[in-house]
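Example A, followed by Example B.
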Amino acid sequence: MPFVLALVVLAALLSATVTVGVYLQWMQRRPRPDLAHEIIQPERLGADALGETATLLQFSTDRCARCPGVHRTLAAVADTHEGVRHLDIDLTDRPDIAKHFHVMQTPTTLVLDSDGAIQTRFGGIPSRDVVELELARVTGASQSLPEPVERG
């Protein structure tokens, strides 16, 4: 009987661990509103300016394997929206910036509004669709839906 009980306890622990892992991964990919109320000055980041309507601020390191893919995605999103700029800040030699913005993982992406206020924070790899939706929310642009196809 103790062997069966040990198997049941082990199965319960394994199930709980997998459930917590799936939940944490799901939460990590969701956009989180940031209520820091800080206006980011581009000079502090080593940039000349922010975007006119919004800025996609990516924090990376030179050893981050996922950062180049996120860089390509964010750059492509910024290129398709007028007034949106993508900035990629390498934190390898800038621990002061990582500490200030509470960056615990790379990539981390912040969506800034036209004033430079942080509106949204993504930890990890955000999907292009979610970035587009957050950008539309921040800029006040409406997402255009495809026209319905008439059958008949």
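Example B, a separate protein, is given below in the same form.
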Amino acid sequence: MIRLSKRTDYGFLAIRHLCSAPAGEYRSAREIAARYSIPPALMAKLLQRLARRGLVASHHGIKGGYQMARPASQITLWEIIEALEGPVPPHECAHLSIEECRRAGSCDGRRPVLAVQKKIAEVLGRTTLHDLVKQEGAGE
């Protein structure tokens, strides 16, 4: 099943903060970390992961920092999660080995979980950051 860590929660806070910044302005990792009481080194690491995936852009120097690299309408929640968590495996097998799984035949007990996980991934893959921000603004 998809498990999201605190790192993803912090990453979403950072992204939301960057989305609310005026266009063209940069925000430092230290500023974002202070705003949400997150260790600055952790925030810097999360922002670097997001930058490597092209979700945020970084600029070095005195006026440097981070800003959104693409419009919120072009970034899916799934992209953010994978940038922060790494590749999310499609499922977790209850068996200890491939041989044990083969001996079991079909894993009927796992199929409902796989179906739920697939639906969750589909929703996250088609929901954009813009959709999320819009829902938060509407109080949903």
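On Example B: The radius of gyration is 18 Å.
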